[in-house]
Amino acid sequence: MSGTSNVGQSSLYEAGDQRNVAQSEIDEQKKENRFHEGKEHSHKALDSKDERSIGNKLERESKREKEGEEDTAEVKASKEDPTLPAKMHGNEPSRGAKVDAQIQAEEEAELKRKGKA
């Protein structure tokens, strides 16, 4: 049997289609890509299969406690008026936000009526 094939066109089997890359070039690419892999914030703090030491976990939690969780402008606005976050973005508030605002207004009126507000 000869070393040539009669299947397909000769343009399918040109020498540039497949090439062997030197191992040094592959190693170079691995070194460059190693630090750029993964996604931001993909590490879960409470992952049971986490390989961080207990000391590192405790340090991270103490930093989180010191930082405190401050509310964003949207969260502050939603506590004040449930329809404000949507209005801030130029949208019409959802039906649920409208109902929440109505309930909140009724509760405030009831408290004022009772003299507790």
Oligomer: single chain
- Outline the biggest β-sheet: none
- What is the string of helix and strand elements? HHHHH
| Residues in helices, as a percent range | 40-55%
How does the helix and strand content classify structurally?
mainly alpha
How much of the sequence lies in strands comes to under 5%
Instruction: Please work out how many helical segments DSSP would assign.
Output: 5
Mean pLDDT: 77
* Low-pLDDT stretches: none
Shape: elongated
Which value, in Å, is the CA radius of gyration? Answer: 31 Å
β-strand number: 0
Q: Termini, distance in Å?
A: 98 Å
Biased composition (Basic and acidic residues): 27-82, 89-98
Biased composition (Polar residues): 1-12
Region (Disordered): 1-117
List the helices and strands and how they pair.
Blueprint lengths: L22 H12 L19 H14 L5 H8 L3 H5 L6 H20 L3
Short synopsis of the structure:
The protein has helices at 23-34, 54-67, 73-80, 84-88, 95-114.
Supply the key terms.
elongated; 5 helices; mainly alpha; 50% helix; 117 residues
Describe the structure.
This protein is mainly alpha-helical and 117 residues long. The chain has a domain at 73-114. It is built from five helices and no strands. The protein has helices at 23-34, 54-67, 73-80, 84-88, 95-114. The protein starts with 22 loop residues before the first helix and ends with a helix. The model has no long low-confidence stretch (mean pLDDT 77). Residues 27-82, 89-98 have a biased composition (Basic and acidic residues). Residues 1-117 are annotated as: Disordered. Residues 1-12 have a biased composition (Polar residues).
